Amino acid sequence: MDTGELLEKLKDLAIADENLRKRLLATKGSETALADFCKISTEVGVPLSKMDMIEFGESSYAAMRRSTNGGGENAPLLQWEDDAYEMFMMELEMITGDNITLIGMPASGKSTVGVILAKILGMSFIDTDLVIQQKENALLCDIINDRGVDGFLEAEERAVLSINPANTVIATGGSVVYSEAGMKHLKRLGKIVYLKVDKDDLFRRLHNIKQRGVVLQPGETLDEMYDSRSVLYEKYADYTVDETNASVEDTVEMIQKKYS
User: How far apart are CA 166 and CA 169, in angstroms?
Assistant: First the structure.
């Protein structure tokens, strides 16, 4: 692997391992930051040397730096001591922010809980269903009817990949877990909380499926949808909140405790 590939691998490891993330972030600001960073990366099986990082930084950002003062091959370079390290750490800080993403079945209360949670925690709020509608200039149900399930899932993935918030509660659509790329992006943005609702309770909540824009494959039953999605929600969740016999306020309180 070249240095760029090794950095991508290290980033993926840091996203999955909170302790590794903290160790890497803790190197920033020390007199031996780059050396400490390379030592940690090598310990976890990503052999990066200080010289690798410096050379990669110089080659990766040379064109950008030559554009300083009007550009041209002879333009002065920006003086960043260790470009690759600085850029990696900036990206790592960005993707390990304090965002909270809510996933779960349709009608599990993600949007309602999300708004209240954002107010209580002093955070912003994003509903990815609304992002889809704004970007596609169409209602969810119309997108499904006009483009089919696959067309809707493509629109949903584009919408999720387009957001890059900070200090935000993100409420997602129930079908977001069908996109591996979308879920990987949400993982980078912060913690993922699964609002788990009992199957019988869900069926009582779900009415007027077409108007809600619930994504069902042709011939798929609600029962089959529940079983297949539950596995994916469990797979991606950092925390699971069981909503059995819980009010909206109870659910918000349970999530708060996860972050206290």
Answer: 9
